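A reminder from the course coordinator: this example appears on the midterm review sheet, so study it carefully.

Given structure:
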C-alpha cells in the first residue's frame, strides 16, 4: 500500500511537471503569435505610406517593409513549430494525468480491499434450517 501511495505521489509530480511545460509552451506560442501580428501590422503600415520625398526614400522604405515581411514570415514559421510543440506537451500532460488517475484508482481499490479484509464476517443469528425449497 505504501508503495502505491509513493507511486501516486511520483505520478502527481510528473503531472505537475508536464503541466508546467505545457504552460510554458502555450506562453511561447502566444508571444510568437503576438510578435508575428505586430510585425505584419508594421509592414502594412509602412507599406501604405506614400509621402516619400524622393526615390531613395521610397527605395529605403521598400527595403524596410521587405525586411519586416521576411521577419513576419519567419515568426509565423516559429509560431507553427511552437504550436506543434505545445500540442505535444498537452498530449504529454493528458498521458501524465491518465497515469496518475490510474495509480490513484489502484491505490483506492487496494485500500478498499484491505479494509474489507479487516472486517469480521457478518454471521447470521440463526442457523438455517430446512431443505432450501421453502
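Designed residues:
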Amino acid at each position: 500500500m505504501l508503495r502505491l501511495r509513493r507511486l501516486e505521489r511520483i505520478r502527481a509530480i510528473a503531472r505537475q511537471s508536464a503541466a508546467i511545460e505545457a504552460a510554458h509552451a502555450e506562453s511561447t506560442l502566444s508571444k510568437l503569435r503576438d510578435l508575428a501580428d505586430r510585425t505584419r501590422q508594421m509592414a502594412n503600415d509602412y507599406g501604405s505610406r506614400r509621402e516619400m520625398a524622393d526615390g531613395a526614400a521610397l527605395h529605403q522604405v521598400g527595403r524596410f517593409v521587405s525586411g519586416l515581411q521576411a521577419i513576419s514570415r519567419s515568426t509565423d514559421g516559429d509560431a507553427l513549430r511552437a504550436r506543434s510543440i505545445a500540442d505535444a506537451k498537452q498530449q504529454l500532460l493528458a498521458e501524465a494525468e491518465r497515469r496518475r488517475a490510474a495509480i490513484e484508482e489502484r491505490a483506492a481499490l487496494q485500500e478498499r480491499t484491505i479494509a474489507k479484509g479487516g472486517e469480521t464476517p457478518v454471521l447470521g443469528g440463526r442457523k438455517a434450517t430446512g431443505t432450501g425449497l421453502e
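The two ends are 46 Å apart (CA to CA). Helices lie at 2-47, 55-118.
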